[in-house]
């Protein structure tokens, strides 16, 4: 099978499964509105003019956190989808059969999560749209800055895919990685400046946060949409990290499958 055929097969399967649970979409939207309401009213107790001046943005705390939440929503679903889909294949007994096909393990693991990542990206964009339409968030962006934000979003999705494949590789070996997923997501929320500026953290932790590619992606998208100054070095660093991390993650996944075959644990869960 060629790449597009494999990709289409996985997307078609996941679309049909998702379509059979229509209530989930409504519940996700309700959860989004409630989360936005929480931070909207929290922003009322913050001096938004002072906050915007300190962050060099044309928006207060609500706009700041909405961008962070949108990207965190994508990484939460996207990161978990790789290991969850792999775990489903393990428990249903189809993982070993998939790994026995001529299709490369890297293509299989990437294709298995394409639909979930696309849905997660749509959820993130819907969160932003709900903030604008329901809570009156004012976006300070031109056509050019929106294009930059979309480019940065592509880089972020690539970064999330790299992390997801790496976690999936660990799932092949250790079977259960729920705690690891929670640790990674918490670390990204802590160090990525999702809820607060990283400048409020102690200097050693702030230095670590500034070196995390997720932070660069959040900064670029936030600056693009909220009237800030985009750092080209951060955008270049984001795509550079994807170019390095994604091939390494795919190699790691292939190595984990090879090891599981050697130890006879490929079908275990």
The structural domain count equals 1
Give the distance, in angstroms, between the N- and C-terminal Cα atoms.
28 Å
Proportion in β-strands: under 5%
C-alpha geometry = globular
Mean pLDDT: 84
Instruction: Please describe the biggest sheet, giving its number of strands, its sense, and whether it closes into a barrel.
Output: none
- The number of distinct helices, counting runs of at least 4 residues, comes to 11
Total DSSP E strands: 0
The quaternary state of the protein chains shown equals: single chain
Low-confidence stretches: none
Question: Which structural class should the secondary elements be placed in?
Answer: mainly alpha
Instruction: Please estimate the helix content.
Output: over 70%
The helix/strand series, from N terminus to C terminus, equals HHHHHHHHHHH
Query: What value does the Rg take, in angstroms?
Result: 20 Å
Q: TL;DR?
A:
Helices cover 78% and strands 0% of the residues. The chain contains 11 helices and no strands.
Attribute tags:
0% strand, globular, 269 residues, mainly alpha, 78% helix, single chain
Please render the helix and strand layout as text:
Elements: H1 3-19, H2 22-42, H3 48-55, H4 61-92, H5 95-99, H6 105-133, H7 143-174, H8 178-191, H9 203-210, H10 213-225, H11 232-263
């Amino acid at each position: 099978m060629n790449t597009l055929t494999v990709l289409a097969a996985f997307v078609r399967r996941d679309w049909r499964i998702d379509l059979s649970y229509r209530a989930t979409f409504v519940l996700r939207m309700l959860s989004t509105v409630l989360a936005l309401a929480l931070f909207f009213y929290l922003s009322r107790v913050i001096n938004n003019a002072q906050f915007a001046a300190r962050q060099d943005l044309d928006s207060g705390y609500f706009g700041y956190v909405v961008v962070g939440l949108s990207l965190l929503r994508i990484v939460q679903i996207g990161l978990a989808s790789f290991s969850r889909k792999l775990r489903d294949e393990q428990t249903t007994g189809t993982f070993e059969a998939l790994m026995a096909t001529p299709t490369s393990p890297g293509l299989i693991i990437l294709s298995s999560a394409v639909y979930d990542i696309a849905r997660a990206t749509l959820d993130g964009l819907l969160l932003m749209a709900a903030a604008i339409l329901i809570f009156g968030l004012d976006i300070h962006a031109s056509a050019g800055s929106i294009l930059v934000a979309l480019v940065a979003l592509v880089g972020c999705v690539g970064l999330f895919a790299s992390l997801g494949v790496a976690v999936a590789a660990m799932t092949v070996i250790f079977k259960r990685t729920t705690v690891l997923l929670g640790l990674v997501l918490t670390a990204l929320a802590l160090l990525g400046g999702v809820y607060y500026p990283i400048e409020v953290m102690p200097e050693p932790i702030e230095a670590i946060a500034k070196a995390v590619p997720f932070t660069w992606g959040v900064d670029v998208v936030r600056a693009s949409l909220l009237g800030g100054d985009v750092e080209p070095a951060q955008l270049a660093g984001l795509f550079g990290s994807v170019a390095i991390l994604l091939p390494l993650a795919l190699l790691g996944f292939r190595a984990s499958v090879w090891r599981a075959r050697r130890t006879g644990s490929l079908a275990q869960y």
